[in-house]
Amino acid sequence: MKEKTSGSLNFQIIEGVFFAIIAVFIIVVSAGMNPYGSWSLAPGLFPLIMGIILLVLAISLIFQAVRSKSFKSGGFDKVDWLRISLVMVMTFIYVWLLPIIGFIAVSIPYLALMLLLLGEKRWWLLGIISAGTTLSLYYAFGVLLSVYLP
Amino acid sequence: MIEQILAAIDLRFIFLVFVGAFAGLIVGAMPGLSVTMATAILVSVTFTWAVNDAMALMMGVYVVGVFSGAISAILINIPGAPGSVATTLDGFPMTMKGQAKKALRVATFYSFFGTIFGLIMLAVLAKPVTKIALQFSPMDYFLLALFGLTTVGSLTSKNFLKGLISAAMGVIISLIGIDPIMGTTRFTFGSMKLQAGISLIAALIGLFGFSEILIQIGQRSLEPIAGKLGKEKVSFRELLRHLPLSIQASVIGTLIGALPGTGGPVAALIAYDQAKKTVRKPEVPFGEGAVEGIVASESANNACIGGALIPMLTLAVPGDAVTAVLLSAMYVHGLRPGPLLFTQTPDLFYVILAAGIIGSLSIIALGIGVAPLMARMVLIPKKILLPVVAILCIIGAYAINSSVFDVLMMAIFGLIGFVMRRKGYSVAPMVLGIVLGSLMDANFRRAVSLASAGDNLIISMFSRPISIILIVFILISLFSNFKFVKTGVRKLFSGRSGKGQEE
């Protein structure tokens, strides 16, 4: 899919710094992963190399942003953040409740709430889609494919 | 050979392949349900069956399952299988333009062609290709994976550097968990659940599927993905126009399929990258709905089937996860694949070829008959489709390991994918990095360890002919993405053509 935005330049510097911090962290942690003295088979060898590569790429990203002269105002544009945040919160609550109250009991309200959030107001359709989808998936996965569902 | 193949086919055999094919269609099109999982379940169901019946069913699932990963990739931008990652790049843009049916028709035809090509290669080249694959050293496997990673240039439409960062992050993510060589934990921070590593399927569904849901939900308008399916007829002649590209992709698919541990995603991405470099004037630019992108990706990942079967049947070394399951199914039936297969049970080779051929014909039947019906889902308003797809993402992530932790990972990767895509980082290189990371890590360290016994570490590591060829490929692939190289090559060619005209 075509990317929505390419990211503006002042944000690109922040992104570069963010990746540089991750890279330094990887380098520091993997440098300590050499329990047997020899680097040839050390668990930290490859992560160390990847950390250095990421650091070089992150610095290049910062340079690319600095060298480019046009600094645009950046950030996310025209996004319904409330809807996205609510979906994420609902999903994390779903993950938390899934092993406690089971697939059917958590999926029906999850689907109904999400449909409601996206603007579906016909109650009968809310019921049919949320219950129908959940029960069909339960049958397909739980019964036909023998996948254990909580 | 044809006589022996025909001898394996009867009505019951055809029926069983078709039943498997239908199951493969469903399994492959559903993100999270893998062909590997389906064939593994079938081993437990079919172990009391006659070997021909079991192979017919499993080959049906395998062949059509690989194809049908393209259906969800094209329709809802979620690859049904890792091998269909490259298909999303042009398949979904075609759907959004109202060309879903055309995209499915192209994917169907070239999946069929790729499978047949792979099977012909299996029949003809089984032994020579196996000999080459056997000569690959750990360093060569590392370089092959690195070559796969350099294809990120093709997966990132705007910023090559961001593509490389995405790929590097993918490789780093793949290193989380227990180190495959020494058995120590890395980057788990004391978490028991991270010891098994990050599930590829959970990451795949999150980065492609859940992030797409978040992007769509964030938009004010929730109209259907496409206003129409398109009635654009694709003539047979038009389909055949891409045959040379398909042959090129199928060759790549077969060769990479024959290398153990690589498989469909690598083959499809390398074939896609090569298509981008060799097709000078695509109908529309790559990444915006180019038919050629689907041709390359689908031909390669289906040709991989024949390729992956080569080392499995002749050396008992599986080329990918599904052939590993098929191998175990053969052992369950008391068969011994490997060098003695052709002397002890030669019929089995032809049974597998026959099942593969009928399976590929099933691709045509199901691709024309059933896939367009499945395509109607893109006409459903997003406010209804998105919650259903969200629950599919959740159950898909859960089903692989029956793990709630994988669902959590899927949601986190969904959020990461959302932010990445908003900021111009393509998610496909990250998936490629996760796929190839552990392969690179293990083989690089084995290569360093082997080379450290020699006099000169560098010469020991890089002096083999296969290594040198791969290094040349990597350098070409890497530098061809730099602007100054592109401009230089363009100038060189335009200068030459100008001279030619003057002369």
Describe the protein:
The complex is a heterodimer of chains A (150) and B (503). The radius of gyration of chain A is 24 Å and the shape is flat. Helix content of chain A is 69%, strand content 0%. Chain A has helices at 9-31, 45-67, 81-101, 103-117, 123-144. Mean pLDDT of chain A is 83; it is low at 1-6. With 150 residues, chain A is an all-alpha fold. Chain B is 74% helix and 1% strand. Chain B has a two-stranded antiparallel ribbon.
List the defining traits of the structure above.
heterodimer; A: 150 residues; mainly alpha; 2 domains; 0% strand; disordered N terminus; B: 503 residues; two-stranded antiparallel sheet; 24 helices; 74% helix; disordered C terminus
Summarize the structure.
The complex is a heterodimer of chains A (150) and B (503). With 150 residues, chain A is mainly α.
Shape of chain B: globular
Helix tally of chain B equals 24
Order of helices and strands of chain A: HHHHH
Oligomer: heterodimer
Query: How much helix is in the residues of chain A?
Result: 55-70%
Number of domains of chain B: 1
Low-confidence stretches of chain A: 1-6
User: What is the succession of H and E elements of chain B?
Assistant: HHHHHHHHHEEHHHHHHHHHHHHHHH
Assess the beta-strand content of chain B as a share of residues.
under 5%
Radius of gyration of chain A: 24 Å
Q: What structural category arises from helix and sheet content of chain A? A: mainly alpha
- Interface with most residues: A-B, 73 and 70 residues
Span of the ends, CA to CA of chain A: 35 Å
**What's the mean pLDDT score of chain B?**
81
Question: Largest beta sheet of chain B, briefly?
Answer: 2 strands, antiparallel
Strand segment tally of chain B? 2
The rough form of chain A would be described as flat
How many domains would you count in the coordinates of chain A? 2
* Mean pLDDT level of chain A: 83
Low-confidence stretches of chain B: 496-503
Query: Portion of residues in helices of chain B?
Result: over 70%
